[in-house]
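Narrative of activities, Objective 1.

The group set out to show that a structural description can be obtained from nothing but a protein's sequence at a throughput compatible with the screening campaign. Below is one input-output pair from the validation batch, recorded exactly as produced.
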Amino acid sequence: MIIKEVLIENYLCYYGIKKFSLSNGLNIILGENGEGKTKFFEALEWLLNGDNDNLDKLVSKKALAEKDNDDSFRVRVEITVEQYQQTKILSKQFTVKKIDDNKCSAGNGVLSGIEESSNGERNPVDGKELLEQIFPSQIRRYSMFKGEEELNIFDNEDALIKLINLFSEAKHYDKYELRGESLKIASEKAVELASKNNTKNQSEYNKIENDINYLQRQKSDKLTFFEEANGNIEKTTKNIQEVEKYINNAEALETINTRIHKIESEISKAESLISENYTTSLFDESWILMNFENIHKEFATKVANLSIERRKIQSDYDKELGIKEGEKRAKLALLKDLVPLPIGTPSKAIMEEMIKDKFCKVCNRPAEEGSEALKFMTDRLKEYLDSQKESIEKEEDPKKVFEFNYINRLVNISTNQEDGLSKLRNINQEIEDLFNFNQARKTDLVELRNKLEKELQERDRIIGNSAIGSEKLSVVLKDYNSWQRDIKRLNQDINSLQSDIDKITIQLNDLKAQKEKIDLTNANNFLINTRNILRDIDKIFKDTKDRKFYEFISLLSKKSNEIFSRINIDAFTGVIDFRLIKTGERLKVKIQLQEENGSIFYSPNQSLLTSMHISVLLAIAELTNEVKEERYPILFDAPTSSFGESKMTEFLNLIYETENQTIILIKDYIAKDENKSLYIKPEFEKVKRNKAFWVRLERPFDEKNLKTINTERIEL
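Output recorded for this entry:
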């Protein structure tokens, strides 16, 4: 889009109709302060971004004065643009009715549009829609800048992120990313439903889900606090930087701030090394064990005695068991002598018969009552019957005298404790070492805090020698030191929050892994495979978008530095660094100047900062054409006040070489002769441009009467 013409009618100092025919390329509007230069900018700003409040304040006093009471006239700002080889007109106007010499009533501001067809016909269109069509609001934000301070739009890291998302190819993947995310979530819900329907794991699954939801809420809260802390750091840092503008020796201040931060870091480290939680570290872990060795000896003695007694009881039992076993074996041996009798040995019935008859029919001898022979036969018969009975009965295992090994376990405990006694014997030394270590760190802290105090005093001295008045010095010092403390506290909060977020993330990942395991068990293969495919698709969309984002950053960095070096020929430039910063889950881009070795270039002068900001803006303008195949004009009002005349000429000649339409309003190259008449310096002839205008108040005029003010336009 190219602005072909700007028309201003009865807007403040622009009495009547003033037309500015502009060119594609560099358009320069010269004007001394108070001559109408800034009002040109404000007129376009009202057309493109302004509201309809206090319209009576925008009326040309000269136009009002020349009208009769009840007469009406209009106030209008209009641009004619060319976009895609089509002419379009955007106009904003309102009607003014004069009441008396100093009063008027203003109608409603109306934004209207006209599109010109190929055959020359002009068709009215909705003004708001046309404005967004020719000059989208998100682009206008990065196209109009009033003064050097407004150039620094990238102090806000979010601004650059929005700009990159707007112009990079990454934005084309937004719809795919949203769709991929939607499908992934739907597939995950289907898998979750299948898992929940499995009553076997339902209780465990529900618990895991509840834990995940709880931790996600915790993480979200932590991230919110994290962002708030970062925002407060940004605000506080800006306050500090604003104060430091008034300090004469900025480099000395930066040096001493670096030393202060280093000392504070050493103090924090020393404080973290001191462990004075004596209740836990000394009493619970050390002092309470000081007399344990005596207790252990008593315990070991009792365990040893129990062990001896156990072994004695076991030994006696084993002997008794051995005797019984011996008797059994004797009986068996005897039985073995009796059972395997030779053929013809009397049977049980024969034995009973012989005992009854009291006569041994084997040896053919009598066995009278009371005789040894009869007793022998009776005993052998009894033993035989008993042995036969025992052989039939199932043998039982002997009963154990000690069913469990409790005493052996006690012995093992005693042995293990014996191994640890060597450590206990060193408790006294460990306690002493801990006290000595803490005392040494306390000594270090005293030295560091004394050193810090001296550095703080030196910083106060530097600030005290600043350019600000003495009446503000005490307030500045108080605020400055308070902000420094705030920064330190906020950084500690951020570190703590980040640690909490990391821990929660680990817990969430573990729970999700458990949930995933149940899902794989309960859901069917089709659902699992579908979910995995959609996860991969979602990741591809996200990764591609991120890649396009980083590619744009890289390209923007390259182009910005190319322009930056050309603006600052034969001067120190450094390198524009686009630093990606991730705070929590939020990505930001910060622009800063670096030296060639990568160290940050602190406290650059305003000229260098202006060069950096303009370089980035021009690079964005070029990339806009490459990415969107569309160009948009850039409008600057006094963007280079800090430039010298020589550098200003080089800068304008550089802008001339770019392909973008640029409108620059400056007061440079205008001077006053001995009669205080304005004239354009001959040096302006060295400036390459496509179009140039000189806006100045029509002479003569009454400097105390706005009714005499009219800005005239002179094309150069």
